[in-house]
Request: fold
Amino acid sequence: MDVHIPKWNELFGPTVRALEALGGSATIQEIVDKVVELEAFTPEQLAIPHSDTGRPEIEYRLAWARTNLKNLGAVTNSARGVWALTEYGKSVDEAELSKRDRTWRKELAARRVQGEPDLEAGVGEQAADWKSDLLQRLQELPPDAFERLAQRLLREAGFTKVSVTGRAGDGGIDGVGVYKVSLMSFPTFFQCKRYRGAVGPGAVRDFRGAMAGRGDKGLLLTTGSFTKEAKAEATRDGAPPIEIIDGEELCELLKTYDLGVSTRQRIEEDVLVVSEFFDDL
Reply:
């Protein structure tokens, strides 16, 4: 039996309602989590991956919904990845958004037929698409190159003594680094998973088990996503917490530290994946 997933334009209303429920502004992950909650999406719906990137199809379509809501003037987003409702977005209803979207797309198609540049559309579409391009490039990396990328990322984020240890018999631990906060230093183990789908709670438990007796700070990175159960397991009471970074957040971090991503300023950010960067890992 086919599992239905709403089209991106059918997610306009849920996205706006999620932002309203979150006080008018939210991060991407907060929006995704709230939409999933409000729409009561099933595990079967959440498990369907996007054909090219492997990220959940629902997250991919929500990215397009946000981009097009921005084109319609209903939301804005900051350089720090926070999305917010505009005054128009707070008052417009779902039917009006759909109607305005159809009109906007007809006008866009007419401009393209006339050969006119559509800078706004090009930038908006790329805002949703660059992460898919980046995740696809990351999933093409050999395992050791992906581990070196994680090592570089941690160094850029302020970790010291970062080493890649990933070897047979190491229980899934790919590396370790030291993070210093004021006068305190914390050894932190990390694991990298080039997943196209969702990471389940078993992977979190296995990683925690590999850390047992060696340290209690762990970081689990993936190009995919984490199931609801995996997120709950990462912060389970009575167990050492595991920090988790999914594909969406990983893209943002690589952009923040200019690792394989360049940003050009036009009308707004123009983000490009620098594929050659990954060839040198």
